[in-house]
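Objective 1.3, modelling of assemblies. Example input:
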Amino acid sequence: MGAAEGAMSISRRQFIKIGAIGSGVAAGATGLTSNWWNLYAHPVPDPGTDGDRVVPTFCELCFWKCGVLAHVRNGRVTKIVGNPKHPLSKGRLCPRGTSATGLLYDPDRLKQPLLRTRKRGEETFQPVSWNDALDYVAERLDRIRTEHGPEALALFTHGYGGSWWTRLMGAYGSPNVAAPSYAQCRGPREVAFQLTFGRSLGSPESIDLENARCITLLGSHLGENMHNTQVQEFAEAIGRGAELVVVDPRFSVAASKAKFWLPIKPGTDIALLLAWMQVIISEKRYDLDYVTQHALGFDELKKHVELFTPEWAHPITGLDPGLIRESARLIAAHRPASLIHPGRHVTWYGDDTQRLRAVAILAALLGSWGRRGGFLLPSSIDVPKYPALKPPTPGRPPLDKPTDGHYPLADETLASGVCDATLTEAPYAAKGWIVYGTNLIQALPKPERTIEAIQKLDLLVTVDVLPVEIAGWSDVVLPESTYLERWDDLWSPSYKEPFVAVRQPAVAPMHDSRPGSWIARELARRLGLGDYFRWEDPQQYLRSRFDAAGLDFRTALRDGVVLGEAGPVSEEDGIELGFDTPSGKVELFSQTLKDAGFDPLPTYTPHEEPPPGMFRLLSGRSPLHTFGRTTNNRVSGQLVSENEVWINRDVAAALDGFESPLKSGDYVVLENQDGVRSNRVRAKVTERIRGDAVYLVHGFGHTAKGLSFTRDRGASDSALVSRYAVDPIMGGTGMNVNFVRIVPVEA
Amino acid sequence: MRGIRKRRFAMAVDTRRCVGCQNCVLACGAENGVPLGSFRCWIETETDGVFPELKMEIRSQRCQHCSDPSCVSACPTGASHIGLGGTVLVDHDLCTGCKACIASCPYDARYVHPDGYVDKCTFCLHRVERGEGPACVSGCPTKALVFGDLSDPESALSILLRERQHRRITPERGTEPNLFFLS
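Predicted structure (tokens):
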């Protein structure tokens, strides 16, 4: 009865409020509500999800790091919405950000420190106190340092909390800090743009989708891939009538909005890019002034592409020459506000740096680098580092840079390289791994190789929120607090609207979890490295950095973000173009590549094709998930809890080995060229994909015991990537080189 | 009653902007405390054609807040009713959970709450009355959803519906739906 009375009293109050905001009090009594059966109104009771506190911070459900407002009511986070003051979210989130409560309140979270009790990989642990866990780790780190040198420790890291661990590695004296986000993701792009324009694209990418008049996507599936700000700007551009060209073997969401969809044969993008350049150059549709003023090597390029006509590209790409020509003309017609999207996860075939070089060269022909609607040249707010000791210089180079000259143009440490070096113990042995926020079993190709490498270690420590697969292989598992329970370092990226964002806890750490900043510092203290972490607490650390930058810390805490003055970001804004390449020009022809023994201009080379009865395995993203990190989330998991394998309708009808024609929803198994079999996965039988490829959303098929929601749901594309093609230029691991056959689930 | 206009709340869904990310679904769920597994809004995808000649429309869907709602006619207790701005609502206290409304709704927009009553989209009137948009609208990263008052010819919604081609889903059922899909 009490509850009903409560509801009535709320209703009455709201009823009065409705009247008060109407055009007159009389409206409240008579005009605003009508009712067929009852003479009184039933206003909607407030669901009570607004916070009694609203805490601005920034998201960690993916790496985009949008500003959010966490509503906290009676000590519980009730909902997460976008922070309107934050330039990356502008008050709107993607569904992963909205479902962050599903991570915070995940019943499967790591709840206390764990020590392994039996064989690695058996996932058998005993809970221990933080003191015992940290002493254990510190003692072994100390021994590794003494017996093998500090370089024998490697850190694999993903996510913004990684900065504390990078600091620890510096203090410890190891150069082996690796992020799979480089060699397994965006590395080839960064190298290609650095080579061509003297500047890489970073994150968030310095592209101007919003003002583009024509957007070209090559394999990028914006809208399924929810980089929030990019999707917002993409929709804005569509709303303003921007043209869209989508190159994808799959009829993606973006393709459904495109003027031209080019259902390209996978692995042939370089041929298409060369043909586009051939059309644009031979029909003189490029930006002559821009090229003349800023670029080097145009004559070589012109000669290079002369014979790469759409007719040449047709049998390679499977695309109609007319479609290639028409799309090239559309792309050129809107220059310079014609954006060839550079993509992000670009490690596909092992010649990815060359493909991204072709993208960059095309962008130069369109004059879109440094121009509105193309590639912008933003800067960041300068925030001095916290005053600290200078870390020691490591005695040996990173593990992934063997002296025989592999991958000469890699400019970050290769996670795959560190893994390989651990296995081969060359150039020297790695004895300890710290794995922070990245599930290496899914993030690195060829998981069985990662597991072999682990056997060489004296110590494997995983710091994570969830009991992911790599935790199961670890000696020590340290439960970190989620982003909603912790402070982290400030963030000051290069962006057209420069800002400094602050991460602050919405609620206290749950269970016996601890923030990474605390864990890393406690380890540092035990290793005699406490002086590298000399601050009272994270607030004092942050306040000191804000003060040093002349920014108001209290504003940052109140708003979640401090905005800087938007400076010029394009030639239209008054920037004079300059290029940090060896020649000081846009290098269409790359002498650097030539000197290193690579093609100075991108060339198409055919890739192995799937044998009869097999299909190329492609993977991509769901808007609900970030890799395998979110698949255990019961909130986003309401909508997507397993992946499906996309199979062309004609292919499905003609598959061997099935008693009746395959239908959507039927379970199948994928078996790759090396005999690796997937977990069972539902088929999505569709017209929306070519017949020579199948497609999976990445991140499913978990096997870890502790992931009770997502375990055994869907298929792991990572497990099927038992081979990869290494990019000789920078060591990226091309993963679209695996073939699968579709087989029935064994009874 | 001078100057008093009877409001008619409605929504437009821009299918060109919508990418089907489903943030509307989760933002609604978080705002309204919708039980896991139940949904007040959802995404529909309609694909036509044969590879490679394909067309696809993505629609963010919810109760159509019909002007002549079959659910209200079907409700034996008066729980389903028309509220502020023509919004179709359910009075939880009056609802017996008989599901006659669920059977009569052409849009499958209702679900049974674990507490026994039928529940559905309210256009977030608790937000609207304090001048905010429904949670799905405010949270949409592509700004594909526009909520407004059709009785005001100068509302952003009315202007949009004058300027853009649009259609309603299943209007032949005669319930006079108030969700408009812009193409």
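The longest strand of chain B covers residues 41-50.
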